[in-house]
User: Fold these one by one.
Assistant:
Number 1:
Amino acid sequence: MRYTITALIVTLGICVGGAAWALEFTADRITKIDGRTGKDNIYYRDNMWRIEHHTMGPVNVSIVRKDKQVVWMLLSRMKRFKTLSYSAEQDLWVTEKLDGEVSREEIGQEAREGHPTTLYEVVTKHGERTEVYYQWLATDLHFPMKLAKKDGSWIVEYQHVKFRAVTDYLFQLPLNFQPLEEFNKEPGPEPKEQGM
């Protein structure tokens, strides 16, 4: 009996510990780029995420499947989708450390969305290009609640962040959607019957 309880505790510890490494969450994302503000709903799981856009335009949902190296742009009103190749530029900025980070300096403390955050000035370098950002990192969640370029031209902020399991359904193509490529095809000439 004692062995069974110990084995159960170890098994649960492994399962819970393994789950802790995966990043799964839902949130609202506010972006401000060159004076224009946008809002999206985000559903995220490590190598895939869904963005439900609140902007006027034909695409109202984007599904990024890093595991399949594709992005599906859903045009819900037409029940069509467009497939694009995945690019690292489409990654969301949801990790503590920034890509290409070379230095980090703590500036202060602040509460955001009810979470204690540490404000950092972060310098990144990609080739010859150097960028400087401000990052508000929630100390209780270990999650970047806000990231802004130092010059103010670009800001992304996460609100209503909830760490929870996200269903596979959100990362799949809807069954009744057709590829946009087929919709755009022009009809070819009618096949002629032999002998005519």
Note: The mean pLDDT is 84.
Number 2:
Amino acid sequence: MKMTLTLLAGVLLPLSLSAAPAAAQEPISPIRAAVVKSPAKVELGKKLYFDPRLSKSGFISCNSCHNLAMGGTDNLKTSIGDRWQQGPINSPTVLNSSLSLAQFWDGRAKDLKEQAGGPIANPGEMAFSHSLAVDVLRSIPQYRAEFRKVFGSDGVDIDRVTSAIAAFEETLVTPNARFDKWLKGDKKAISAQELAGYVLFRDSGCVACHNGEAVGGASFQKMGLIEPYQTRNPALGRAAVTGNDADRFNFKVPTLRNVELTYPYFHDGEAQTLEQAVDVMGRLQLGKRFTDDETAKIVAFLKTLTGDQPRVTLPVLPPSTNATVPPKPF
């Protein structure tokens, strides 16, 4: 069979790639819009997501480290916790996190519901306890009324709290990226340079780990396959969960959706720019040294993965009462 080729942005491409393909032909698939099953539960979860009273200081909320105005991250190498503690690891984006096989870099939480309870009770993050957080919510009549509306009774427990937060987080998907539009058939949605970057990204082997709707998040992989990754960060990756030394430095592959917004990169936040990240991943994971021109094309492609950001109206949180435990910020 003879394959027809076309020259595009300095890269020789199969003619089939110079036009828009069917999405099923590519290792990346378009993100589907969120389906809201319980608006009341999502609204309750949104309040809890933004409520800093779930922290000991009364200052830190889920949104502090997963800021929805900043790509679902805090754009810091490692996050700031209670009493200005330095976090141990880079905060992954909450956007499209429902598409991941597990939560946290080491996958220690099986889903968003399980993940939501972790930071509340972590002494280096929100530094509260589940029982104290629940006591705060129980002391507020408006919250009890909302729990009754969602769950059928006004009982408040950590299971219901994390279930509501997870329901809100499941709505934080980002469809309609320009690359998604190209996958769906709009051949003008991305430029020649961006398409050339995708071909490099795909044919160099990046899609072995970065694929599917989230362009990642579906597997754990070792950081440093070809060359060892040098870092001062003490995180062990999956080994901290499994106790198996073979899992050392195996981390969840991050999503590349909205990656231009979620800097700095890697579990230790050591790559400040996309160019740095592409260079390191090329050398350490693929054994390939991308030229500056190749890197620029791949970065151009990665920026086409930015989708519609969640349009979130900040909730008006119900006021505390005389029975509400006061915060201890200092």
Note: The longest strand covers residues 5-8.
